[in-house]
Amino acid sequence: TEACLKAIEGAGALNAFVHHTPDIAMTQADAADKRIKAGDAPAMCGLPIGIKDLFCTKGVPSQAGSRILQGFLPEYESTVSQNLFDAGAVMLGKLNMDEFAMGSSNETSVYGNAVNPWRRGNDDSALTPGGSSGGSAAAVAADLCLAATGTDTGGSIRQPAAFTGTVGIKPTYGRCSRWGIVAFASSLDQAGPMTKSVRDAAIMLGTMCGHDPKDSTSADLPVPDFEAALTGDIRGKKIGIPKEYRMDGMPEEIEKLWSDGIAMMRDAGAEIVDISLPHTKYALPAYYVIAPAEASSNLARYDGVRYGHRARLEQGDGITQMYEKTRAEGFGAEVQRRVMIGTYVLSAGFYDAYYNRARKVRTLIKRDFENVFAEGIDSILTPATPSAAFGLGEMADADPVAMYLNDVFTVTVNLAGLPGIAVPTGQDSRGLPLGLQLIGRPWEEADLLSSAYALE
Ligand code: GLN
User: Which residues belong to the signal peptide in this entry (predicted)?
Assistant: First the structure.
């Protein structure tokens, strides 16, 4: 813990940690020492980790990367962080992220962007660690903490993991409680670990997840011993390769990463099967209707009364001006864009044309996966991202849709509620990490982690 706190102090340029909690860390570390000495040490006892700013942590600023939550000190602890602390984990601080988890580069954060510790060969220019869990990815990659929590609504664990050479798993929807996690798109949001290895991910996921009566969508299922399941034996497993993920204009390096991964799994005894997920091309548009729709509803609570920031009012301003000014000042441009898209697609005249249509498409995407699993496919191998980490400003300055295209390989998994893991398996020509994604059957994270272990 002391070494991590020191490393964090020296790594201000990465802008990964946005709230530091050294006192809490040392208190938790002392308590962990006592448990270890008493012979009562659960899996994560004494391990220093970072918590994404989207998780409510009792008495510790929890701002979701937004100005509107400035000064918000939750009265409660999220179930996931509580589970980690109960298992002896030590909180070093809160981690940078895109505002309300909307973004793929950590550049929409009120704290400014986190920076990827990796560089392109000798080129010194700063790269994005990805997003929205960019601070988590940067902190783990730079050894500022042993692991971190992330959340993934459309790829926010897997894409930053791929951009930083770390491992990130988004479990099945309902595996981790969403209680106390600031909501973005409630039917898509899931928490998960971001770690240095698949084994660490297995240990941390087992600690984070489990049934929680406080979240009605949390699954009442036993939590398997994910670590014990890590045999890495994939002999006879059927790995699906979906042809629709072979996008036009896919960089050669990504093609090669994918074919190398296929070869590696075949050599390890898996059966490689070509599959089709025909509705893949509609996933991104459906996601960018459903996610903003849910976000516009979830973000309605930030009205200047209940949480954080409230605008300074003029004489004669009424409650409407208070809402308007507070939300105009408190939300950044991307969040405002999503709220506008969301309220538009939910409005009386357009509800059927956009929102309901997107929900139907979502069902078709889910069925695509169900069909291939019914045919005996165990997991599906795809690239995690369409490129390696890009430069800061490179995408944010372009049109927002260019940024949305980053999620092309990851959003299907959230729409279908499936578990997905990003594993670093290669490098591009300039030495930047690249990751592959494995998609599993619902609730079969144990199997998914074991297959990812074979790929690592
Ligand atoms: N990049 C996607 C978005 O901006 C996904 C974000 C996420 O998974 N939280 O919506």
Answer: none
